[in-house]
Amino acid sequence: MPIVNKKRKVSERPKKVQDDSASDSESSPPPQPAEPEAEETAKSFADLGIIPQLCEACANMGYKNPTPIQAKTIPTSLEGRDVIGLAETGSGKTAAFALPMLQALMESPQAFFGLVLSPTRELAYQISQNFESLGSVIGVKSTVLVGGMDMVAQSIALGKKPHIIVATPGRLVDHLENTKGFSLRNLKYLAIDEADRLLDMDFGDSLDKILKVLPRERRTFLFSATMSSKVESLQRASLSNPTRIAVASKYQTVSTLQSSYLLIPHKSKNLYLTYILNEFAGKSAIIFTSTVHETQRVSYMLRTLGFGAIPLHGQLSQSSRLGALNKFRSGSRDILVATDVAARGLDIPSVDVVMNFDLPTDSKTYIHRVGRTARAGKSGVAISFVTQYDLEVFMRIEYALGKKLPEYDVDKEEVMVIAERVNEAQRQAVIEMKSFDEKRGSRGKNKFGKGKRSRDDMDQEEG
């Protein structure tokens, strides 16, 4: 069992810093909305123009009312317009492009009707599940094409002529070049999800190859939480006279999220992590680290202390990554220790706490990490560990957010009570890490010795 200390409710902790005077310190001009505010008055999906069968599917999935991004983009999409949708993470972007695509599919059903491009394997599987759930009442079939899985099995799935393909760009290019009889020349809809992340992961060449083989006469949806110059270039290359819709500023977290920071010496991070996890005992938590090594080490340490921690990073096999996510989703493990492979797009509704054990290097990644909690109107807590080496980065994050974050209050005397046990757990974790590194080294000599990543490996997150 984990060490248990005295618990305090989050709402009771004092806030040492509260300064919103900088709320307008950095803001970019808001994108032009497609329509004024008409869609915001929509009370249901039917009001947006969604057909009864799909409204029934939304109700079955627990979608009671459209989110702001859905309310603004769906009517425009149903009119046959290309759409650029900008919204904070956790705002319901997937349904915003899935529902118009499925409605158009019902009107003119065909194989290979729609294609969705995703930056990561986990997000691709999640999107595919959403399509099949929303399209269950009309028998929609979806296929996932990602690296790390058998290409022959994927080719067989393509031979069954699915309606929707969800893919990472590298593996899709592999199939376009090598799978006999596979073509997207009759594609009607393209959706590009997490577009900024796709481009950050060096998928530019693969995207160019994909766009060249797609028909010009198609509808295209481009969705992202942030807009960058790379995404602007992709917009010009892939969309025709698009309507740009935004429901949030460039850097914004949801109002139900309690964000704070903890200023501590670097050498004390493991100690304070254990203390805070004890305070949130019984709650689900995601702990973000910067490297594969730290993800594994922290997992080993927490297991030694009795916590149900499981690692998730890009150098695990695909089955291990999906297994870790499923265990966390099901509640059999309540702590997920992850690199930024878990930062984007994954919908895990039960996350109570997000901890930035290693502070992200940029504000955009911070937004996505803390967006794993406080989703769909629920409340959540985000705590960032700030050491003497992180002050400059943390100040940049605060500047981008436009506000000062409060400091998380801890009792240092209580923290020191568990120091001996934590130090022993750290020593045990170091021993286990030696074995892990030896196994990884023997397996990865050829794989990691190459200068460039193969397409098959490209959809794994770095670190």
TrEMBL record:
The keyword Methyltransferase does not apply. SMART domains: DEXDc (SM00487), HELICc (SM00490). It is found in: Nucleus. InterPro entries: DDX47/Rrp3_DEADc, DEAD/DEAH_box_helicase_dom, DEAD_box_RNA_helicase, Helicase_ATP-bd, Helicase_C-like, P-loop_NTPase, RNA_helicase_DEAD_Q_motif. Residues 1-10, 442-453 have a biased composition (Basic residues). Residues 1-41, 433-463 are annotated as: Disordered. Belongs to the DEAD box helicase family. DDX47/RRP3 subfamily. SUPFAM superfamilies: P-loop containing nucleoside triphosphate hydrolases (SSF52540). Keywords: ATP-binding, Helicase, Hydrolase, Nucleotide-binding, Nucleus, Ribosome biogenesis, RNA-binding. Interacts with the SSU processome. It comes from the Eukaryota. Residues 43-71 form the DEAD-box RNA helicase Q domain. It catalyses: ATP + H2O = ADP + phosphate + H(+). It comes from Aspergillus pseudoustus. This is ATP-dependent rRNA helicase RRP3. It is an enzyme of class 3 (hydrolase).
